[in-house]
Amino acid sequence: MKNKYICRHDTFWRFRLRLGIERRNITKNFNFRQYGGIKKALQAALTYRDAVLRKEGLSYWLDYDRAPNRYSRTSEKKPCIGVHLQRGNYGTTFNWCSDVYDGKRNRTRTCFAINVYGNQGAFLKACKVRFLHSGPLIISDLSALPCEPGVPYKIIRNKK
Question: For residue range 50-76, what is the model confidence (pLDDT) as tens digits?
């Protein structure tokens, strides 16, 4: 099982939790000796991480391979996290693309051409690929999309 946002430092005999929330970083160390062993330190780190994410209302971050940046300026330009419109060939072709991340920071981009599938068809196919890998989509502005996604989604409100 992957323990998101928690890494093990054998040099310092500890687990380290690192979270970046609203441009502030939360870092806490869990020393093996202080917590009575490796398993207890890991359990304390997991409990603390879950409590912080629940307090901040970000529990859904654990459901994704890579947590979305809800507060970046790009969220206003990309109304659906992980699915975006891409312009190619000097602005002559457009694609709806789905970005999917594995657990190792590798990105796989799947694009669907608008001139082949149509605007709504390409968007729906990109949404389906993203949903199959990452679960429900996260949408900040439903009115900016060409149509309603054909898969489950959550609407979030960006803080301004």
Answer: 888 888 777 767 765 544 444 333 344
CB–CB of 91/114 below 8 Å? no
Contact between 6 and 46 (Cβ < 8 Å): yes
The rounded distance, in Å, linking the Cα atoms of 11 and 118 is 54
**Each residue of 136-151: b (16+ CB within 10 Å) or e?**
ebbbbbeeebeeebee
* CA atoms 53, 78, 155, 108: torsion sign: negative
| Alpha helices in the chain, H assignment, sequence order | 32-35, 38-56, 74-77, 114-117, 119-134
What are the φ/ψ torsions at residue 159 (nearest 5 degrees)?
A: -80, 135
Where does the pLDDT of residue 130 fall: very low under 50, low under 70, confident under 90, or very high at 90 and above? confident
- CA gap 113, 96 in Å, rounded: 7
> Which range scores top for mean pLDDT: 17-31, 61-75, 109-123, 134-148?
109-123
Q: What's the pLDDT at 90?
A: 65
DSSP 118: -
Reduced to 3 states (helix: H, G, I; strand: E, B; else coil), residue 152 is coil
